[in-house]
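User: Sequence in, structure out. Go.
Assistant: Echoing your sequence, followed by the structure tokens.
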Amino acid sequence: MRLHVGCAMWTHAPWQGRFLPHPLPPGERLRAYATWCDAVEGNTTFYATPARSTVESWARQTGPDFRFVVKLPKTITHERRLADADEELRSFLEAVEPLGPRAHALWIQLPASFTPADVGALAGFLRGLPGSYRYAVEVRHRAFFDDARSAGLLERVLAGAGAEWVPFDTTALFQSPPTSDAERDAWTKKPRVPRRSSALTDRPIVRYLGRDDTARTVEGWRPWVATVAGWLREGRSPTVFVHTPDNADALVLARRFHDEVRAQVPEVEPLPDPMPAEPLTLF
């Protein structure tokens, strides 16, 4: 029984020398992160398809049970809006192939302008994807959350393709006004949609955004602890990504979330012991 947890990135300046050794060469940073968490969001691929050699380095630094949820490039999802993107998709799939089983899901994040009227395009795109990967879709238009018919339409399309609906839970962030610069920035950029906690597959994926205050972050994820524990008891294998506006403590918070779920479901496998930030000495 596995619960995977992770963050939005594997390298972050506030972690260096505090949680992770510093300095570390680029080819060792993911390896160090993987001693803290066993999953990561592949956000960088949204901006550009990586070189295959880069992805081979990611694979070398992680074990086969590590999970990447890798975002499709914005040229496919936002610029071409899932149409006439065969060449871009082919290049992306060739680049990420070295991940092998680590590619837990290919993540199709759609813009807020993608409405229920566009679901037909998503259905056609999903039908054309290779069956060798799992797929996860994130939508941001309010109608998918406020209108039951729109939500049902999307669920039917996703279920037909065996794809998951990825919720991005920002309710804790928007519960009260921002209190830090990072929170103020997040208020202008993050989607303001209701919490959604239904799983469509045996491998649900959750993105949770808390606050820069740890207590408020932990309070905001309480419903997810119960939901994820329930999924595990049902035999599902969830992956949860913990964000905060500044992400300064995201590594520790992801492990804390794992611990809280494991307290309710003791059969869950523990995370590995994290690599120390300071070299071990004999004295």
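User: And one key feature?
Assistant: The chain has a mean pLDDT of 96.
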